[in-house]
Structure formats: C-alpha cells, structure tokens
C-alpha cells in the first residue's frame, strides 16, 4: 500500500553538537510517525547524524538538494537557520515548488529578500525574539506568518534520570557549552577570585567548578589565577544520558554568555534536571531569553556583575535546601513549557494548519 503519511524534510547546515541540531533531532524523533514521515538533509554530517540514523531517521548528507527535493516530494520543508538573508539558500525550495516552507528562526532576525517571502511560517524560539523582531523591524509577529514555539526538551528523561530526592554533590557546580569563544563571558570566571578569597578565609568550603566546553582563554585565566584545584575542564558530551550524568554531578548551573541566549537549551535542560541556574543580562538588543527562562529568586538568580555572581554561588552552596526548592521550581516550569512531546504536538498542529491553507498545491 502506498505511504499516505505527510512527508516532512528538516534541513539544517550541519549535524554537529550545537543546540540547533539537537532541537531538530528532537522534532523529527517526536513527530507522530503514524501521521508524518520525516527525513533530514544537511550539507555536512556529524555526531548528531549518527544518533538520527540510530533512531531510524533517514539522513541525506551533501547530496544535491534540488534533486533530493524532486525525489522525495515533501509536503513540508522545515529549515533551521538564523533568520537573516542567505542568498540562494531558499532557491531550491522555490524551484521544487514545495507546498509548505517552515522556518525555525533561531535568532529572531528578518529576511527582507524576495526569497524570504517563500516562508509560510517563521517560528521564534522565545517571546524575547518575537518582541525584539517587532521592535527592530516594525513588523507584528502574528499569525499566520509568525508564532513562538519553544525549543523542545525531553523533560521526562531528565525527570527519570535526575530524581528530585537525589543527593546533590556538596559544593560542586558547573557550566556546559560548546568549546566556542562566542559561548563565553568573562563573568563565567571573574567571580572565582572572590570565592577563592572566601575559601582562604574559611568562610566557605573549597568547591569544584566543572566546565564542559572550555576554551584556551578560560584555561589560561584559571592557570594565571592559581585556580587549578578549584576548576576542572571536562571533555564534550553529546547525549541526554551524558548530560543527565553531568547534571547529577553538580548542584547548580553557572551560565554566562556575553552574546546571550535566543532560547538557552542548556539552561532549560538544567531546569528539567531540577537544578537552579545563575545567569546574567546582556546589553542592548543582544539575546536575552535567558531572563525569560530564569526567574530571579524563584528558579535561580540573575547577577549583574562578578560580585553578585559570587554571592549567588555562595548562597546556593551554603543553602542546599533553598537551592533544591529553586531547582524544583525550575523543573516544574520546564515541564510546563518545554516538554518535548507537547512542543511536537504544537508543531504538528502548525504543519496541519499550513497544509490546509495550501491544500490545492500539495504533491500526490
């Protein structure tokens, strides 16, 4: 019998370790397989590609995109990109006469090019991105052209693997990111000498700051300030199992990134794991969705400078029960807003609504 499912192709620039690729992976694995047949295209393979294939998702790597589109004849193409103009990127979708083109607009940018008009729905990953888009471009971010869809998080997995009643490691906290200078802020380090002085004065115990995604500048700072006994650089990780193991090895997440977050997947995952989060605001029109995720005094703390950051760390280290309450508040928020199955259902409804609008040009 012919396959009558809706054919959906997700397209992304790579299949690496980044949050963009992980979000795409979550979407394609959580869409209802009785309704949708999903495939993935990327010019470059990577570790995320292996996980997709293990999950039974067909991946097409580096092949001619137009030829692939003509072969697969997808009803829907869902692209994951920054949102700005990328000359020629959307041309294959126009030539292949794709009925529905959806964009996850990662950073909330505007594509004013003629190709940009091909996109039927722009999905912003946070309300912050949608509001900034309206502010900068004077374009209402309303349906049917625009809507907000949070990034999905496997909250069930983190709940099962990061139990609420687990014993949190004393005086241990951490950060996790890609090993990329653009993912860092000096604030991720400059609070450390303040804490080191408190340790030397016996005002707080010695601590362990575990870092995944270290960069040479961070390693040099740690060495130059004689922090080697307090700071530990760890290798990169990929799967939710590895992330949950890391979350179980710390008692709260220390986040700092000068460019900010258009969503903040690691923050959301830490919340899902029951950990409080310390973060900071960013200046001007930089990404600030981290402030949408972290509620000061309820799910973590927002620090404006190194002194405030150090004080937040000190508080969480010395008030474990209060830290546990903050973490569980974060878990509840993550489950309510980011649960992967619920986000996938919302995406399915968007797909069906757009297909209904374009029903006269659907491929057979």
Describe the structure.
The protein has 364 residues and is α/β, with parallel strands linked by helices. It has 2 domains: 6-152 and 340-361, 3-Layer(aba) Sandwich (Rossmann fold), CATH 3.40.50; 155-338, Rossmann fold. It has helices at 19-30, 47-54, 65-72, 91-95, 127-137, 155-161, 187-190, 192-200, 216-224, 240-248, 265-272, 290-293, 306-318, 320-338, 340-357; strands at 6-11, 36-42, 58-61, 76-81, 100-105, 121-124, 146-148, 172-176, 208-212, 231-234, 253-254, 277-279, 300-302. The longest helix has 19 residues, at 320-338. The protein is elongated. It holds the Pfam family Glyco_trans_1_4. Keywords: Transferase. One of its GO terms (molecular function) is transferase activity.
Furnish the topology, listing elements before pairings:
Elements: E1 6-11, H1 19-30, E2 36-42, H2 47-54, E3 58-61, H3 65-72, E4 76-81, H4 91-95, E5 100-105, E6 121-124, H5 127-137, E7 146-148, H6 155-161, E8 172-176, H7 187-190, H8 192-200, E9 208-212, H9 216-224, E10 231-234, H10 240-248, E11 253-254, H11 265-272, E12 277-279, H12 290-293, E13 300-302, H13 306-318, H14 320-338, H15 340-357
Parallel strand pairs: 1-2, 1-4, 2-3, 4-5, 5-6, 6-7, 8-9, 9-10, 11-12, 12-13
What is the CATH top level name of the largest domain? Alpha Beta
The H-level CATH homologous superfamily of the largest domain, spelled out, is: Glycogen Phosphorylase B
Major beta sheet summary: 7 strands, parallel
Counting helices, strands and paired strands, the structural category is alpha/beta
Strand content: 15-25%
Q: If classified by CATH, what would the architecture of the largest domain be?
A: 3-Layer(aba) Sandwich
> Which descriptor suits the 3D outline?
elongated
Q: Stretches where pLDDT falls below 50 for ≥5 residues?
A: none
> What is the count of distinct domains?
2
Task: Give helix % range.
Answer: 25-40%
What would the CATH topology of the largest domain be? Answer: Rossmann fold
Order of helices and strands: EHEHEHEHEEHEHEHHEHEHEHEHEHHH
How are strands sequenced across the largest beta sheet?
3-2-1-4-5-6-7
Distance between the termini: 14 Å
Mean pLDDT: 95
Secondary structure tally, helices = 15
Number of strands: 13
What's the alpha carbon Rg, rounded to whole Å?
22 Å
């Amino acid at each position: 019998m012919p396959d009558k499912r809706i054919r959906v192709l997700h397209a992304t620039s790579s299949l690496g370790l980044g949050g963009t690729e992980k979000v795409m992976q979550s979407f394609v694995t959580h869409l209802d397989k009785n309704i949708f047949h999903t495939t993935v295209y990327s010019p470059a393979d990577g570790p995320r590609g292996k996980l997709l294939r293990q999950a039974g998702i067909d991946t097409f790597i580096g092949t001619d995109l137009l030829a692939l589109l003509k072969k697969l004849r997808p009803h829907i193409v869902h692209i994951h990109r920054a949102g700005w103009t990328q000359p020629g990127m959307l041309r294959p979708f126009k030539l292949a006469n794709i009925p529905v083109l959806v964009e996850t607009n990662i950073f909330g940018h505007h594509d004013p090019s003629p190709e940009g008009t091909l996109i039927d729905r722009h999905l912003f990953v946070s309300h912050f991105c949608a509001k900034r888009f309206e502010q900068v471009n004077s374009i209402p971010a309303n349906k049917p052209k625009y809507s907000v869809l949070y990034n999905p998080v496997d909250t069930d997995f983190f709940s099962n693997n990061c139990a609420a009643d687990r014993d949190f490691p004393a005086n241990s906290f951490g950060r996790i990111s890609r090993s990329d200078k653009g993912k860092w802020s000096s604030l991720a380090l400059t609070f450390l000498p303040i804490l080191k002085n408190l340790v030397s004065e016996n005002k707080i115990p010695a601590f362990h700051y575990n870092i995944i995604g270290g960069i040479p500048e961070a390693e040099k700072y740690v060495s130059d300030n004689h922090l080697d006994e307090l700071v530990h650089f760890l290798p990169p990780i990929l799967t939710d199992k590895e992330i949950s193991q890391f979350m179980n090895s710390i008692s709260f997440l220390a986040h700092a990134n000068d460019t900010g977050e258009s969503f903040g997947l690691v923050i959301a995952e830490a919340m899902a794991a029951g950990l409080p989060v310390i973060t900071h605001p960013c200046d001007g029109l930089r990404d600030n969705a981290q402030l949408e995720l972290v509620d000061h005094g309820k799910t973590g703390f927002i620090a404006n400078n190194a002194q405030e950051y150090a004080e937040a760390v000190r508080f969480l280290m010395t008030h474990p029960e209060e830290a546990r309450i903050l973490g569980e508040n974060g878990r509840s928020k993550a489950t309510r807003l980011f649960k992967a199955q619920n986000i996938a259902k919302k995406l399915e409804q968007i797909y069906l609504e757009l297909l209904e609008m374009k029903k006269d040009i659907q491929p057979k």
